[in-house]
Amino acid sequence: MTPSLFRAFLLWGVNIFNALQAASQVTPGDFPVVINSTFPLKLAVNPLCGQLSSQNFTEINTGIIPLSATRTIVAFGDSWTSNGANGTVPVPPIMWPPSPSAGSRVNQNRRASNGFIWVEDWANMASAKLLNYAWGGAVIDNFAWNTTSPNNKTSVPRTDFVAEANLFFLQGKFLDSLVPSQTVYTVAFGINDEGQFELAGGDWNRAYNTYVRSWISDHFGPHRMLKQSSLFQVTKLGELQAFGAKNILIHGMYKSHPNTDILQNRVFAYLKESKAVNGTEFAFVNLETLFTAIADNPAAFGYRGNPTCLVSANTIVGGCNDPDHSVFWIRKLAYRLAVALD
User: Fold this and answer.
1) What distance in Å separates the CA atoms of residue 186 and residue 278, rounded to the nearest whole number?
2) What is the pLDDT of residues 45-67, one digit of tens each?
3) Angle at 200 between CA 202 and CA 113, to 5 degrees
4) Do the Cβ atoms of 191 and 260 come closer than 8 Å?
5) CB burial of residue 20 (10 Å; 0-12, 13-18, 19+)
6) C-alpha distance from residue 87 to each of 11, 166, 208 (Å)
7) Nearest of 280, 7, 293, 264 to residue 124 by alpha carbon
């Protein structure tokens, strides 16, 4: 995608934060950054904020910390969020023609953009440190899908939420103090899970359980699992909470699918209960409203010309001359966004 689309999403998220709390003026923090703030687009639709009492997922911010208080952002997900760092120091988003991936001479698992991706823009705005574990093509749990399960000889495992979280648990405390009142955890999974399920089937319950439920929570009550034996599988969100997560931002899908709708409802219900039990604050962003509005009237946002800038996912040769006004940067990603947001 272009940096413009990522920044449109960033504005969308900031509007959700501000809908339920007045964000303080951002002041210089402890993590200096230098960025190009040019932004030719405008946000032509507002979030549709719902109620905490909703039985289905809805856009909401229960009170996660504002930009002015955010000092660390920990990110998990797929290419929507990945900057190729995988828990290390990211490469600056410099273009190396003809590679289309900012910051890399090669294309694999780097930024799906010609500039900063949305979570980097967010960190820059907050002057916060970013620990990014997201990786292109990631799913929730490899064992859930026939195409990725290590149990199948012909499968091709991908990075999953399990691996991303485990790496963070190993190194996170050495990279940052992770003060709960100053740290936001952002998670975005599901679209690649839907894609793998459509290819060859699998077990959505396995994916649900890995994300938000476990054997222990079913038998001992939610969140008590955090104090129970590690012999049992526990939810990844529960492990993050046990590690100190008190502010969680969840990204919803850009398009409705029956299975991912159920996933989002379960995540929403889990976080509602977390807030009641241990005071976890969360925000839920539904990208479908934003992407539908862009598709219906791209000009209202400032987009013009061909919606996809590049004619190939592997090179900038033959691409457009005005990427900031194209909705999508890479054709391959644009197609997958139209069917399944990777």
Assistant:
1) 18
2) 888 899 999 999 999 999 999 98
3) 95
4) yes
5) middle
6) 25, 11, 25
7) 7
For the chain, what percent of residues have pLDDT higher than 90?
53
Is residue 283 within 8 Å of 220, Cβ to Cβ?
Answer: no
Of the candidates 207, 94, 57, 103, the one whose C-alpha atom is nearest the C-alpha of residue 145 is 207
Environment class of 18 (CB within 10 Å of its CB; exposed 0-12, middle 13-18, buried 19+): middle
Provide the pLDDT for residue 106: 67
| 3-state secondary structure (DSSP) of residue 293 | helix
Query: Does residue 6 register a pLDDT over 60?
Result: no
Question: Cβ distance 190 to 263 under 8 Å?
Answer: yes
What DSSP line would sit under 238-251, residue for residue? HHHHHTT--EEEEE
SS3 content of the chain, % helix, strand, coil (to 5): 40, 10, 50
Residue 282: strand pairing partners: 248
Number of H helices, E strands in the chain: 11, 6
Q: Which of 266, 264, 268, 288 is nearest to 341 (CA)?
A: 288
> pLDDT tens digit string along 196-245?
999 999 999 999 999 986 434 443 444 443 444 343 456 899 999 999 99
Is 90 exceeded by the pLDDT of residue 329? no
- Nearest partner of 341 among 247, 266, 260, judged by Cα: 260
